[in-house]
Design brief:
Blueprint lengths: L4 H26 L5 H23 L9 H21 L3 H23 L6
Helix pairs in contact: 1-2, 1-3, 1-4, 2-3, 3-4
Length: about 120
Amino acid sequence: MAGRPWWAANELLAFLLELVASGCLFWWGFSLADNPAARLLLGSAVLAVALVLWALFAAPRARFRPPLAGVLAVKALVLGGGACALYGVGHPAAGAVMGAVVVVNTVLAETFRRRPAPAG
């Protein structure tokens, strides 16, 4: 990591985006009902589905490792879903910004992954 500060910064941003997307998905699910118990149930259910998908297919130590297209599809679903969730709770500008940051972060992550680490 010492020789790759931009890679490390991008990885930190990716982790923060995962946390933000999780929170946004819970918030969106929470906003779907009026009853407090139903709100908690829906928020938790949406979050649980996202976390299970991530853990199975997209996490660094995922249980299953599909081809890159499959990993990117799960990332698009969860991280893009977080951006859409922001839009769904009434924050369209924040959702658009989050979506753009997710795309740039993912493109950079793939670029860094294909480039070898500097020697030294």
